[in-house]
Amino acid sequence: MPAGELSILPAGLPMAWRWAGDVQSLHVRVSAASADDLAGGLLRRGHVDIPPLFTVPDRFVRHLLEALRAAATGYADTLKAEQLIQHVLTRVDLGRPATVSRAKGLSTACLNAVLDWIDEHLAESISTAQLAALAGVETSWFTRLFSDTVGCSPYQYVLRRRVVHAQHALRAGAAPAAAAAQYGFFDQAHMTRHFRKLAGRPPAAWARAARS
Asked: Among residues of the chain, what percentage have pLDDT more than 90?
């Protein structure tokens, strides 16, 4: 399983794992009842059957799981966690390969390119024109296509990624001001405002809870 990729495994699937060297992984468990409640109606199914999907190459699904981990660290918000899980379940479309392009929105390949570029340039000023060029679409259409695919605007997505990366830095011991400068916030106050909205606590309080 290549670094950075993910698999979706139904309950009861026999598995055998063999690791070589140090491994870091994130495991998210969703009950069958929760999957039915959160995604059944949106997928127009009474029961959600989860097939095995291995090494899913969809960056957005991975980022949703990172956001779920960030939301659960130091501040548990059930509503937000359920919303993220719902996005994951409907994004993979349960039963269709994640690489299938949607008729409405950006293809998985285009979206992966945009999301990878965003993560690599969070410290910089990011424009719609830059992202549209990466996706190969007109600037005037990009925001709508991105929003249809991801569920939020490019601006909101970039803010969320900046907060998630700032959380990693804070957990590793960085000062809030340093994390703000490293990931594209104007200053610490700017980061604190958006951090509190997304994580439920200001950066310093979140960091203390995450390290305890």
From this structure: 19
Give the tens place of pLDDT for each residue, 52-84: 888 877 888 888 888 887 766 655 556 667 777
The residue behind tokens 């700032």 is 166
Contact 35, 76 (CB under 8 A): no
Q: How many CA atoms lie within 13 A of 103 on its CB side?
A: 0
Could you tell me the two tokens for 27? 């495991």
CA separation for the pair 63, 50 (Å, rounded): 20
The DSSP symbol for 187 reads S
Cα within 13 Å of Cα(5), Cβ side: 10
Task: Note the pTM of the prediction, 2 decimals.
Answer: 0.62
SS3 content of the chain, % helix, strand, coil (to 5): 55, 5, 40
Please tell me the distance from the alpha carbon of residue 186 to that of residue 40, in angstroms, as a whole number: 41
Assigned token pair, 206: 């979140």
Distance between CA atoms of 42 and 73, rounded to whole angstroms?
A: 28
Tens of pLDDT, residue by residue over 174-197, are 999 999 999 988 889 989 988 988
Report residue 145 CA to chain centroid gap. Answer: 18
The CA distances from residue 55 to 14, 43, 85, 107, 182, in Å, are 17, 23, 18, 18, 30
Domains in the chain: boundaries: 1-12+28-100
